[in-house]
């Protein structure tokens, strides 16, 4: 199973509420869709270290004090395919810049483009951006690659105590 992370940096957007830093993925799994910065764990790395590194590499932001917000398992044709550790943080330094992997954009939390994201994201990301914790299982069918498979079922549990994945 592939271990991955997602990080959702947040900032105060004034009268319009919070903004979240999203990327438009430029290549690889989920190309052309919006998501948080993130990716696969490297050897010897903790999930939290991976989320910090991927955010730095993809969008040039330094994030600290990450809060574990979700633990998601994506199954493909009945087999566990990817586990994703989801973080959020308000400790963000720097200005986002594009990379070969990602085009970053601060987006009001109320305007997250769920129609341009993975089909499951609208089920769990709103709660994560509001401060909840979630454990979820999402079933896809139709073979590799995962981003061309059909999303068929899910199971969610909210307000589950999660470690910080450090
Ligand atoms: N269903 C769903 N919803 C939301 N996010 C995801 C999924 N499935 C996923 O795999 N993901 C996330 C998990 C990862 O953060 C990214 C996939 O990115 P990455 O692992 O970097 O994929 P590639 O770009 O193909 O890998 P590299 O070879 O470039 O490391 O999506």
From TrEMBL:
Monomer. One of its GO terms (molecular function) is 8-oxo-7,8-dihydroguanosine triphosphate pyrophosphatase activity. Residues 1-130 form the Nudix hydrolase domain. It comes from Natrinema altunense (strain JCM 12890 / CGMCC 1.3731 / AJ2). Keywords: Cytoplasm, Hydrolase, Magnesium, Metal-binding, RNA-binding. It is found in: Cytoplasm. Signal peptide: none annotated. GO terms for biological process: DNA protection. Its main location: cytoplasm. Belongs to the Nudix hydrolase family. The keyword RNA-binding applies. It comes from the Archaea. This is Oxidized purine nucleoside triphosphate hydrolase. GO terms for cellular component: cytoplasm. Its cofactor is Mg(2+). InterPro entries: 8ODP (IPR003563), Nudix_hydrolase (IPR020476), NUDIX_hydrolase-like_dom_sf (IPR015797), NUDIX_hydrolase_CS (IPR020084), NUDIX_hydrolase_dom (IPR000086). Its EC number is 3.6.1.56. The keyword RNA-binding applies. It catalyses: N(6)-methyl-dATP + H2O = N(6)-methyl-dAMP + diphosphate + H(+); 8-oxo-dGTP + H2O = 8-oxo-dGMP + diphosphate + H(+); O(6)-methyl-dGTP + H2O = O(6)-methyl-dGMP + diphosphate + H(+); N(6)-methyl-ATP + H2O = N(6)-methyl-AMP + diphosphate + H(+). Oxidized purine nucleoside triphosphate hydrolase which is a prominent sanitizer of the oxidized nucleotide pool. Catalyzes the hydrolysis of 2-oxo-dATP (2-hydroxy-dATP) into 2-oxo-dAMP. Also has a significant hydrolase activity toward 2-oxo-ATP, 8-oxo-dGTP and 8-oxo-dATP. Through the hydrolysis of oxidized purine nucleoside triphosphates, prevents their incorporation into DNA and the subsequent transversions A:T to C:G and G:C to T:A. Also catalyzes the hydrolysis of methylated purine nucleoside triphosphate preventing their integration into DNA. The lineage of its organism: Archaea, Methanobacteriati, Methanobacteriota, Stenosarchaea group, Halobacteria.
